[in-house]
# Entry
Amino acid sequence: DDRANLAVAMAVRLLEPNLPVLARAMRRETAANMASFGTDHIINPFARFGEQLALAISAPENYRLVSWLTALPGTPLEDLRTPPHGNWVVCGYGRFGREVVRAFHAHGLEVTVIDPNASEQPGLPVVRGVGTEAEPLGAAGIHAAVGIVAGTDDDVNNLSIVVTARELNPHLYTIVRQNLHANRALFEAFDADVTMISSELIASECLAVVRTPLLAPFLDIARHRDAEWAHALIARLQAACGEPAPAIWSVTLNIADAPAIYHLLMEHGRATVRDLLRQPSNRDETLACVPLFLQRTDEAVELPGDGFVLQPGD
# Structure
């Protein structure tokens, strides 16, 4: 409930201002209100999925990197079938459908909406219906479409939509929204190109923020770099750490996290990133890890090189 989440976030900010707050907001207006009084991290799963979809369309290699780094450790790096350019059909024009249409329109893709209640809007063809039957799908141009999004708040309807659509056009790229965790087996059996589960999206982002706060700013960088940069970093990570998704962690060079190197640096010693990468039991060998991001009081450094000189508090 957006109003309850807003009330909790506001109460915590007033009662305990230094306590980090991670909040879910299903509406952009709620997110803006939370941001106005300093909520630390706000997650709108539908808006976040729309951003991810836009990234997959415009920069598939960057999307592949971001998805891999936010996956559970050990998850294989999957080949991505990029959402194709062309005409799309979106079933359900609620909060989720609107974010998807926003992402498609931002990249010049044509969209036709199927919804029983959607009102006519300039530049957005609308067909009345749910999309579980062939007639509204045909009226929306499913035979010539490149993809379909089943985004209603009913799992049975969403599965029925994509099954019917795939019968009419076997070559469709399918994006389906799963609302209830209990229906996982059904969605896995259908094997859509993309399955959107808002609860898992929220949970994975919360875990990433809590476990490794520095990952979020690095991912923002990764989303805006070119494909060659993303491809090179994937290759570097795989060469150092192997094929599965790496474990992501952080350390602060202070008395609590790293007392030995902290004392060295405070006593005017010198240490570089290369020193941190040495194997403790054999200093001639290198650890299987890659430094992604360094935060300092007055600067941030992406992919710090081996010769980067460290300071206390980094």
Summary: The CA atoms of residues 61 and 231 lie 6 Å apart. The two ends are 39 Å apart (CA to CA). The chain has a mean pLDDT of 92. The first strand starts at residue 22 and ends at 24.
